[in-house]
Design a protein that fits this description.
The strands form two sheets. The chain has a seven-stranded parallel sheet with strand order 3-2-4-1-5-6-7, sandwiched between helices. Strands 8-12-9-10-11 form a five-stranded antiparallel sheet, with helices on one face. Helix content is about 30%, strand content about 25%. The radius of gyration is 20 Å and the shape is globular. About 40% of the residues are buried. The chain is an alpha/beta fold. It binds guanosine-5'-triphosphate (GTP). It catalyses: GTP + H2O = GDP + phosphate + H(+). This is Cobalamin biosynthesis protein CobW.
């Protein structure tokens, strides 16, 4: 029988830098033929579209599959299994499969799916890589009070979590074979050192941790971990181990069609105001700017906004102006929409 194809699961919170890391992998794939499965929370398919734009011969548009129906951890049987089977039935099988989970997904149910009989004979999980947003970690997004959490952890293995963000973060850490502390360019050396120190105390002993900026990491370091995680689920505890289902009703998303904008700066100012007022975690989309033939990409993580023109609009392509907005449950969608479109 032929050797199993290795698969790497890339997980990490909304906007941590998973797509940037994968983009770097595609552009530096060292001759490896990659297949990508991209799962995104929100209905706009921004990550897949940006990765397809890489135009690399080792990872063409046909090698990129998007799973858009909610989080991969909840739709494993319906979406993920048929997709991976399709990839495996191809004549030109990939050398390596990369799965990007949505920023809200729990990695463990996905890893478990690699143990399904029809998959495990052909594929093995090479490694689970968790990307951490360095500044968000420093700013305490994932634990309101890290010291209290640590004290509780020492007292009791199964934590009571105060917030769904902590819960997700814990699951993503516990399942990892490698941790990437990303956005190191936005941290100073002492912040990197203190985050590394704190995080190391929370990881399984053999887990490697590296810091990066824009996900720039040598593919030889990232791939080839050989963890066979599907055979090692017991050592990766999850707060959801006993839960039959995991609805992502703590978070929600909506797509806003904002029409052509006068300028990127004009839009950014409105978004900044909306983010300062409402519980918005992530914004991204493609925008038409008046008088410009190029497509504007807008990315927001917390209060940090980035925008750039990525390419010309194609002939016959509909010039869209849509943002997907992801936030905590109960965000006031109508008020947000009004602030951005007014
Ligand atoms: N300054 C800085 N910005 C970064 C870095 N990595 C990613 N970003 C920016 O952060 C934003 C989100 O990056 P993505 O790679 O799309 O993050 P993601 O984890 O794929 O996001 P989701 O799929 O929405 O969860 C983009 O604007 C990136 O340009 C980094 O190391 N430093």
């Amino acid at each position: 029988m032929s050797e199993k194809i290795p698969a790497t699961v890339i997980t990490g919170f909304l906007g941590a830098g998973k797509t940037s890391l994968i983009r770097h992998l595609i552009e530096n794939s060292d001759g490896k033929k990659l297949a990508l499965i991209i799962n995104e929370f929100g209905d706009l398919g921004v990550d897949g579209e940006l990765l397809k734009g890489c135009g690399n011969e080792n990872c063409t548009e046909e090698d990129i599959v998007e799973l858009a129906n909610g989080c991969i951890c909840c739709t494993v049987a319906d979406d993920f299994l048929p997709t991976i089977q399709k990839i495996l039935s191809r004549e030109d099988r990939p050398d390596h499969i990369i799965v990007e989970t949505s920023g809200l997904a729990l990695p463990k149910p996905l890893v478990r799916a690699f143990g399904w009989p029809e998959v495990r004979t052909q594929v093995t999980v090479d490694g689970v890589v968790t990307v951490i947003d360095g500044p968000a970690y420093r700013d305490g997004l994932f634990a309101a009070d890290p010291e209290a959490v640590q004290a509780q952890r020492e007292a009791d293995e199964m934590l009571d979590h105060d917030s769904p963000l902590e819960e997700l973060f814990d699951d993503q850490l516990n399942c990892a074979d490698m941790i990437i502390l990303n956005k190191a360019d936005l941290l100073d050396a002492s912040e990197v050192a203190s985050a590394t120190e704190q995080l190391k105390g929370r990881l399984r002993p053999q887990v490697k941790m590296l810091e990066t900026s824009h996900g720039k990491i040598d593919i030889r370091v990232l791939l080839g971990l050989g963890s066979a995680a599907e055979d090692d689920l017991a050592s990766r505890p999850s707060v959801h181990d006993d839960a039959d289902d995991h609805e992502h009703d703590d978070f929600e998303s909506f797509v806003l069609d904002i029409g052509e904008v006068a300028s990127p700066e004009f839009l950014v100012a409105k978004l900044q105001a909306a983010i300062a007022t409402h519980d918005i975690l992530r914004v991204k989309g493609f925008i038409t700017v008046a008088g410009k033939d190029m497509r504007l990409v807008l990315q927001g993580v917390g209060s940090r906004l980035q925008h750039y023109f990525d390419r010309d609009w194609k002939d016959g392509e509909t010039r869209i102006s849509k943002l997907v907005i992801i936030g905590e449950h109960d965000m006031d969608q109508a008020a947000i929409a009004e602030m951005i479109t007014a």
